[in-house]
Amino acid sequence: MIQFKSEIAKTINKITSIDENELKNYIEIPKDTKNGDYAFPCFHLAKKLKKSPQIIAEELKQKIEINPEIIEKIEIAGGYLNFYINKEKLTKEVLKEIEQEKNYGSSKIGNGKNIVIDYSAPNIAKPFHIGHLRTTVIGAALYKIYKYLGYNVTGINHIGDYGTQFGKLIQGYKLWGEEYNIDQDPINELTKIYIRINQACKEDEKILQECRDNFKKLEEGDPYCVELWQKFKKLSLQEFQKVYDMLKCEFDSWNGESFYSDKMPEVIEKLEKTGKLVESQGAKIIDLKENGINTPCIIEKTNGSTTYATRDLAAILYRARTYDYDKALYVTSYEQNLHFKQVFEVAKLLGLDEKYIKGLEHVSYGMVLLPTGKMSTREGNMIKLEDLLQESITRAEQIIEQKNPELQNKKEVAKKVGIGAIIFNDLSTNRVKDEIFEWDQVLNFQGETGPYIQYTYARTQSVLQKAQIQQIPSIETINIHNLQDEYSQNIIKQLYEFNETLIQVTEKNEPSILARYLITVAKAFSSFYNENRIMVEDKDLQNSRIYLTYAVGKILKTGAELLGMEMPEKM
Ligand code: ARG
Fold it and tell me: What kind of fold does domain 4-85 have according to CATH?
């Protein structure tokens, strides 16, 4: 498809010899289309060319050679050059591509580059709670979007299946296991044990020590500890799978923390060789003050057991060798900012190729806050993800019952709407911001929500159904001149931006860019639908509008599915 921005950058490059990519980055999309479709702010060049932006604009305008098939006209406004693209050309290009491309908006930009995404990673024997919602849906969306752009993606569930907490659980189980019915309701019962043993540890230092020793024993392969731990793990994974099924979330690798138990000695050896691994109060640490990080990274605890950080270091070595990654993303909350800063810094000491260090990236995100405040496992006041999704489905069912009681497959639709609402709500907030979770907002069919996107999509499908067309009209039969009005053009410009939007998502690892985009497309369609009658006498005009409706439906569906939502055909 024609790249208008590049075309503009190319012509300016011919005149100024300034790097094309640099020029392209300066190009803006004016808020008001009266100021053109693209604007080039000349003040960026003022310093380089030693002229005022106004003069640069005038000189450029005079010298620019434009192809009228691409750019209709250029105007100067202040220090800006405003470009008005050829609407017919744009319309033709977009619609042709939508017709021809099975995966519209996809591209080969990824070029088989290897991306590893570490996401979800709940901790076994603990509830899969709302705190793991964001990592799961952000990670799953990035996974799909990178793939769509031609990257070779590996999704890893770095399950929390190791660490002192298992020493605690084993101790709790030893002490009171018989009082709890673990096989029937594993996570809830294990959580009860976990809360109780934590309390006991607070009251009695000796118990805490035994817990630590248990974990040490687990690491050393003590049969009883290993057996219990395996049991906890199996039961937990079964429970987690229910949530993954609901969210349609998949992974290529389930190598959790324990997978690295035999891979840590190598890390320690390598670190020792650098001379930077030092003893401190019986533990082995790497001091990072020189690197501007005040807290040292603990590699081995006083009793010789390893840490979360050491396992992550072993994982970096393993992933570099196994996946030869170009980017390794870690999707966790900003509570782990320090952890990843430390780990990425220490990773520089492992003797890896520079490429692997550069590729490490922490994709951090804000908290989900309930109107009642934050929650934590230790106190036990958290919301389980499965319950949250279930509640959303139930609420969606009630809304559908009110709005459209005649609808077929109500249960099926409610599931898509309920789960889609949660996913979209999460992904439409910029990831670094905390998200406040409120039901009225999440399930509002008119707001900037998942159900609104789904509803708009269903609307496009009902238009196509009402038109009773056997087949989508071929683009050859469409009269482009019928789509020159403001509302149609607004949609077409948005559809044009789809691929660019997906690229931006991967550049910033920010799925909210796609979520916001879908809102814009849905709104553009709503205005189009309100202003333009689709079923009209003039069959030529009708055909063109139907085609556009079809195109909007296609993009909404593709985009929403990339976010992990399912789209009901009727709602
Ligand atoms: N299990 C961890 C948690 O629940 C998240 C793991 C993230 N991945 C990693 N490689 N550290 O906080």
Answer: Gyrase A; domain 2 (3.30.1360)
Token pair of 216 as six digits: 């040490």
Q: Are 37 and 27 in contact (CB under 8 A)?
A: no
How far is ligand 1, taken at its centre, from the CA of residue 240, in Å?
15
Ligand 1 within 6 A of CB of 429: no
- pLDDT tens-digit profile of 336-350? 999 999 999 999 999
Q: Indicate which residue's Cα is closest to atom 9 of ligand 1.
A: 158
Question: Could you read off the pLDDT of 180-238 as tens digits, one per residue?
Answer: 998 888 888 998 999 999 999 999 999 999 999 999 999 889 999 999 999 999 989 99
Q: How many alpha carbons lie under 13 Å from residue 165 in its C-beta half-sphere?
A: 19
Give the type of residue at 49. L
CATH superfamily of 385-563: Isoleucyl-tRNA Synthetase; Domain 1 (1.10.730.10)
Structure letter (DSSP) for residue 179:
G
Task: Name the CATH superfamily for 114-369.
Answer: HUPs (3.40.50.620)
Gap from CA of 131 to ligand 1 centroid (Å): 12
CA of 372 to the centre of ligand 1 (A): 25
**How many residues are listed for the chain in this entry?**
571
For residue 368, the model assigns a pLDDT of: 86
Q: Is the pTM of this model over 0.90?
A: yes
Establish whether residue 544 lines the binding site of ligand 1, counting it when its CB lies within 6 angstroms of any ligand atom.
Answer: no
Report the C-alpha gap between 18 and 39 in whole angstroms. 17
Where exactly are the structural domains of the chain? 4-85, 114-369, 385-563
Q: Using an 8 Å Cβ cutoff, are 44 and 92 in contact? A: no
Q: Which residues of the chain have pLDDT under 70?
A: 372-381
Q: Is there a contact between 340 and 330 (Cβ–Cβ < 8 Å)?
A: yes
Inter-axis angle of helices 133-148 and 539-562, to 10 degrees?
120
| 383: DSSP letter | -
- Residue nearest (by alpha carbon) to ligand 1 atom 11: 312
How far apart, in whole angstroms, are the C-alpha atoms of residue 193 and residue 191? 5
**What is the distance between the alpha carbons of residues 93 and 95, in angstroms, rounded to a whole number?**
6
Give burial (CB, 10 Å; 0-12/13-18/19+) of 418.
buried
Q: CA-CA distances (angstroms) from residue 304 to 265, 275, 285, 400? A: 12, 19, 12, 58
CB 316 less than 6 A from any atom of ligand 1? no
Ligand 1 and 121: CB distance under 6 A: yes
Distance, CA 336 to ligand 1 centroid (Å)?
9
Report the C-alpha gap between 184 and 481 in whole angstroms.
66
Calculated CA dihedral for residues 518, 522, 524, 526, nearest 10 degrees: -170
* pLDDT value at residue 373: 60
Mutate to test the pocket of ligand 1, among 158, 297, 378 (most ligand atoms within 8 A of CB): 158
Number of Cβ within 10 Å of residue 561's Cβ equals 14
Asked if 514 and 146 count as a contact pair (C-beta separation under 8 A), the reply is no
Q: Give φ, ψ of 363 to 5 degrees.
A: -95, 90
